[in-house]
Amino acid sequence: MSDSTEFGKAPSGGAASGPPAFESAEALTEALSGQDYVIDPGFAVVVHLATALERPLLLEGPAGVGKTELAKSLAAASGRRLIRLQCYEGLDDGRALYEWDYGKQLMHVQMLRDRIGELLSGTTTMAEATARLQEQDTGLYTEYFLSARPLLEAVLSDDPVVLLVDEVDRTEESMEALLLEVLAERQVTVPEIGTFTARSTPWVVLTSNDTRELSPALKRRCLHYQVDFPTPERETEIVSRRAPEVAADVVADVVELARRLRGFPLRKSPSISEVIDAARAAAVLGLATTGEVEKVRSALLSALLKYGSDRELAVRRLDEGEPEAEVDVATDEGWVRRSSRPADTTSGAFGKGRASSGATRAEADRARRMRR
């Protein structure tokens, strides 16, 4: 097995440096704004720290709040190439790390076959011929025959990149173990060759929709930020930037409709991108001033809601003003009545215990203590 320094490290002995990190959170905010990505001040500070410290950044939160878009905008704003690993159930190292190019290897074997006769000329016994073959390096297991997948591609890149590991919670826990070496050591081990150490330092962004709890080992290696739906004011700004052709009053009305829908216990709440689609649909339908959304609400719900049951519930509550059910919740001030709507869309889809915000978990813990 070869030495890792033969493959991975830059000639200077360390990972190559790329474009300079942003000087401050304000500079990062301005750069992302140039990509039409609107970021909260607190979020900007955490992203700035991740880039300055070159630490992986784990973003958790409901689907559709801009986690993936942050990685895309960060790559564009920094001038780095984006490498994306889209996670899914059943993802293995062959799709995430590397595969051997069997076609190339087969052609190489056929070429070697033509040379074997010359190599074995002069041998008189099978043992002698075998010994002579074993002395030769066939070269079948070298970097030339590797098909790099996203994780190895990021490690082998001479230019710094942004590595996006999207929806990591959709994979099995065993897949997290493969990520640990990349996140902690910035390296990938190929058993047949050796260890590839990063030739440059990638910025790593992992996203999770909170469908399952990630392992402490993975979280320990990352900076963490919980991304939630933006305030109506900030979402209005986001939609206006992405759909500048839509009148400001119409954007505000569509955002307000989305806010009301998110207050219902839906299987899937409207994402920001779906709100942008609804705003553009409103403009196509001729809306130009405030107060006209109700006229085309049925059409806009096609852009905002993607489940029949969600649409039926939303129409019923919007038309009839059906109140949300309330439950008793334990707080520091005692028991209070609150909406039964789950803290996020994941809780609504998967139920309690699968994933919830820190505030919800804390309230549940306090409730258990008070019952005792």
TrEMBL record:
Record field: compositional bias (Acidic residues): 321-331
Entries under Gene3D superfamilies matching the protein: P-loop containing nucleotide triphosphate hydrolases
Pfam families in alphabetical order: AAA_5
Sequence ranges of Basic and acidic residues compositional bias: 362-372
Domain AAA+ ATPase: 53-233
Ranges of biased composition (kind: Low complexity): 10-21
UniProt-listed InterPro entries: AAA+_ATPase (IPR003593), ATPase_dyneun-rel_AAA (IPR011704), CbbQ/NirQ/NorQ/GpvN (IPR050764), P-loop_NTPase (IPR027417)
Region (Disordered): 1-21, 319-372
Signal peptide start-end: none
PANTHER family reported for this sequence: MAGNESIUM-CHELATASE SUBUNIT CHLD (PTHR42759:SF1), MOXR FAMILY PROTEIN (PTHR42759)
Protein name in the entry: MoxR family ATPase
Native source organism of the sequence: Pseudonocardia alni subsp. carboxydivorans
